[in-house]
Each structure stands twice: as structure tokens, then as C-alpha cells.
Amino acid sequence: MNIPAESTLLRIFLGESDQHAGRPLYEAIVLAARERHLAGATVLRGTMGFGRSSRLHTAKILRLSDDLPIVVEIVDAEARIRDFLPALEGMLGGCLVTLEKVQVVRYDGTGPDAGELG
């Protein structure tokens, strides 16, 4: 798979306890991105954060949270990311979604799907 050097980063900020169709929302998003053959997705689990409600979510030992912040990052060509956005609409509840331009300097792998920039 090829990915252009000028690409787009989609970031979705949500909570660890958010669900879609009986599974964690972050998992549903990554699987949907994979089904659409997007270049890649990563789920990051935060140790502390807050959102629109200003409710603090933290992993401190004395105050364990079961709803830590989660960020899903997906990188691909802008058109492919924008085509993916409507698929997210039916999944997302309260969250923050951002897009930003990124410069891909390396995208390769070791398997048969390894690609080059361009």
C-alpha cells in the first residue's frame, strides 16, 4: 500500500468505556478503518485527561478510573480519511474529532504489504 507524503491525521478523542455494537468504541473504529484498507491506526491510552464536561479522568493509584482517555489516530491520504468520516458518524457519541495535515517521512513494513511513499 502506498501513502502520499502529504497526508492527513485523523484523531478521535473518546473515553475508554465508550461502546459501539457491544464492543469498545476504539476497537470498532480501528476495525472499520482496517476494513476500508486505510494506511494505519493506533490506539493510545491516556493516564489523565478531561473533556467537555471537565470531569477529570485519571489513573492515579488512589483514584482509579475505569474511563481513561483514549485517542485513536489514523493516517492516510486526505481523500481517504474524508471518505471514512461518514462511517464514523453512526458510531460516535460524545467525543472530539480533529484533522491535521501531516508529512509522512517513512511508511514501510516487513510483509508483502510493505509500501513506499508516493
Characterization of this structure:
The chain is of the alpha+beta class. It has one domain: Alpha-Beta Plaits. It is built from two helices and eight strands. It has a four-stranded antiparallel beta sheet with strand order 4-7-1-8. A two-stranded antiparallel sheet has the order 2-3. Strands 5-6 form a two-stranded antiparallel sheet. The termini are close together.
Entry keywords:
four-stranded antiparallel sheet, two-stranded antiparallel sheet, disordered C terminus, 34% strand, Alpha-Beta Plaits, 2 helices, 118 residues, alpha+beta
* Whole-number total of structural domains: 1
Strand order of the largest sheet: 4-7-1-8
Radius of gyration: 16 Å
Terminus-to-terminus distance: 10 Å
Main CATH class: Alpha Beta
Beta-strand proportion: 25-35%
Shape: globular
Record field, number of beta strands: 8
CATH architecture: 2-Layer Sandwich
> Tally the helices: what do you get?
2
SSE class: alpha+beta
Helical content, roughly? 10-25%
Order of helices and strands: EEEHEEEEHE
Low-confidence stretches: 114-118
CATH topology: Alpha-Beta Plaits
Q: How many strands, what sense, and barrel or not for the largest sheet?
A: 4 strands, antiparallel
